[in-house]
Design brief:
The chain is of the alpha+beta class and 302 residues long. 57% of the residues lie in helices and 11% in strands. The radius of gyration is 35 Å and the shape is rod-shaped. It binds zinc ion. Zinc ion (ZN) binds next to helix 2 and helix 5.
Length: 302
Amino acid sequence: MSFSADVKNELLSVETQNECCLHAFCYGFLLCSRSFSYRDISILTEHKETAQVYADTIYRVCSVAPSVVKSGAGKYRLEIKNSDDRVKVMSSFGYDSKSRTMRINYANIADDCCKSAFLRGVFLSCGTVNDPSKRYHLEFVLPFKNLIKDLAYFISGFEEFQMDYEPKIIQRNSNYVMYFKGSEAIEDILTVMGAVNSSLEVMGAKMYKDMRNNVNRKLNFENANLDKTVGAASRQIDAIGKIKKTIGISRLPDELKEIARLRYDNPDMSLRELSESLTEPLSRSGVNHRLKKICDIADSIK
Ligand SMILES: [Zn+2]
């Protein structure tokens, strides 16, 4: 199952305690559903459980029972067919026949306790979130520009967030998409909606990624150092080979003879290993210095 489906399952399992919050939750998923107006109230969902929760909630909040039909494409369609019932639902949320429905009616989410429940309903209707191990991306998609702007304003106002997040809005075909990119924003949004486990999963994915990046950085650093060592060693061996063929190692100053033979016979040794193999101990920089001298002598041989 996708991460988004996991999140939605978690959101469906959240118990909405207060009547006011249940009202706000119902308003959230209806407002952002396929159609919410006097002429048509209908919701499409892929999940039977979601359809069931929606139908129960609408009944509890508005005393109207929607019909639930399984469509040909395997989706579930909730619909309120009777026009009197639609009037009942619309007026439950403060709309009369003249009001514009595609704006947030803040009277439905006046209490602080209701804001989370409202957002939970909104996300269930029009939200998705990507698997955090792949990328951090959470979005809300609606065909109404003003409503998506209202939502962006509403979400930016959560006091529970760790910081201010600026949602981006873009147009995608005939829809408007509001999205969040950072892992912190996604964690915060999931948490306020009540998807605490999913939020922890995002946190875990972030920690794992950070750790892996650190390890990779360290490995790259070590590999770069290793390459440097290998490059230096092969230059030193070329130099010693040249000395062997020309003046001979025995003509080198005494303090360079042993290290020259040792390096020539052990191309893979690190500076530390070379320093430890000398009869008289020497620091790594001491070894490096002498090897450099040998290279200089080789360079001076015409
Ligand atoms: Zn409430």
